[in-house]
UniProtKB/TrEMBL annotation:
<dbReference type="InterPro" id="IPR022357">
    <property type="entry name" value="MIP_CS"/>
</dbReference>
<feature type="transmembrane region" description="Helical">
    <location>
        <begin position="39"/>
        <end position="59"/>
    </location>
</feature>
<protein>
    <submittedName>
        <fullName>Aquaporin family protein</fullName>
    </submittedName>
</protein>
<dbReference type="InterPro" id="IPR050363">
    <property type="entry name" value="MIP/Aquaporin"/>
</dbReference>
<comment type="similarity">
    <text>Belongs to the MIP/aquaporin (TC 1.A.8) family.</text>
</comment>
<dbReference type="GO" id="GO:0015254">
    <property type="term" value="F:glycerol channel activity"/>
</dbReference>
<feature type="transmembrane region" description="Helical">
    <location>
        <begin position="86"/>
        <end position="108"/>
    </location>
</feature>
<dbReference type="GO" id="GO:0005886">
    <property type="term" value="C:plasma membrane"/>
</dbReference>
<keyword id="KW-0472">Membrane</keyword>
<keyword id="KW-0812">Transmembrane</keyword>
<feature type="transmembrane region" description="Helical">
    <location>
        <begin position="12"/>
        <end position="32"/>
    </location>
</feature>
<dbReference type="Pfam" id="PF00230">
    <property type="entry name" value="MIP"/>
</dbReference>
<dbReference type="InterPro" id="IPR000425">
    <property type="entry name" value="MIP"/>
</dbReference>
<keyword id="KW-0813">Transport</keyword>
<feature type="transmembrane region" description="Helical">
    <location>
        <begin position="168"/>
        <end position="191"/>
    </location>
</feature>
<feature type="transmembrane region" description="Helical">
    <location>
        <begin position="136"/>
        <end position="156"/>
    </location>
</feature>
<keyword id="KW-1133">Transmembrane helix</keyword>
Length: 241
């Protein structure tokens, strides 16, 4: 795959992922949305379908990593680092663009939200936050949850036919749903540095009314935790398989 194909594929695929993922959170959180208060299960499936749509779209161009932790795990396993920076750049740009698209879709709801007597907070639509602020515990949660994503992804490559048939992407989508339902409660399961950082930056710069001050004190955890998890997955997979 050429550098151009990889970059474009990751931009488009990650943008679709964030459009669906941030979009389902906006649908559940914002007032005047038909999905208001639909709940955590809806959010988990929305993110899973975002992975499904984004990865299938990007796969012909880049393989559909959509996640620096996945890219890092694959690089450690294979020893091929040549295009890692291209993947990560595409993922970050795509995540930012996906957040902008989500804002445009829910523009009227964001405007109406600011006019409510009790406005809904908006940072959580774009990025993750822990239910209990404990940096060590939060970091461990993100590491373990990311291993739960990246290690199976690496193992799927050993099953003949999954990649060629495209079934692996479907399985990964359901894997993300499972992680959200089982491991997402403590921190909101970033499991993807681009998924959290790109939309967090978008939230900071977009003209969202009454959005408050962005909390950057936590922002390193959903970046560092998944990267550690991805690296551990690559090391363990390379040693065990």
């Amino acid at each position: 795959m050429s550098n151009g194909d990889v970059f474009v594929g990751e931009v488009i695929g990650t943008a679709i992922l964030i459009l669906f993922g941030a979009g389902v959170v906006a649908a559940v959180v914002l007032n005047y949305s038909k999905a208001k208060d639909a709940g955590w299960v809806v959010i988990a499936f929305g993110w899973g379908f975002g992975v499904l749509a984004g990865a299938y779209t990007a796969a012909p161009l880049s393989g559909g990593h959509l996640n620096p932790a996945v890219t890092l795990g694959i690089a450690i396993d294979t020893g091929d680092w040549d295009q890692v920076h291209i993947y990560v750049a595409g993922q970050m740009v795509g995540a930012f663009l996906g957040a902008v698209l989500c804002w445009l879709v829910y523009f009227a709801q964001f405007q109406a939200n600011a006019e409510d007597e009790i406005a809904q907070p908006t940072l959580g639509i774009f990025s993750t936050a822990p239910e209990i602020r404990n940096p060590v515990a939060n970091l461990i949660t993100e590491i373990i949850a990311t291993v739960g994503l990246v290690l199976p992804i690496l193992a799927f490559g050993l099953t003949e036919g999954l990649g060629q048939s495209g079934t692996a992407i479907l399985i990964v989508a359901f894997l993300v749903v499972g992680i959200g339902l089982s491991l997402g409660g403590p921190t909101g399961y970033a499991i993807n540095p681009a998924r959290d950082l790109g939309p967090r930056i978008a939230h900071a710069v977009l003209p969202i009314p009454n959005k408050g001050t962005s909390d950057w004190s936590y922002s390193w955890i959903p970046v560092v935790g998944p990267l550690i998890g991805g690296a551990l997955s690559g090391v363990v997979f390379n040693a065990a398989f």
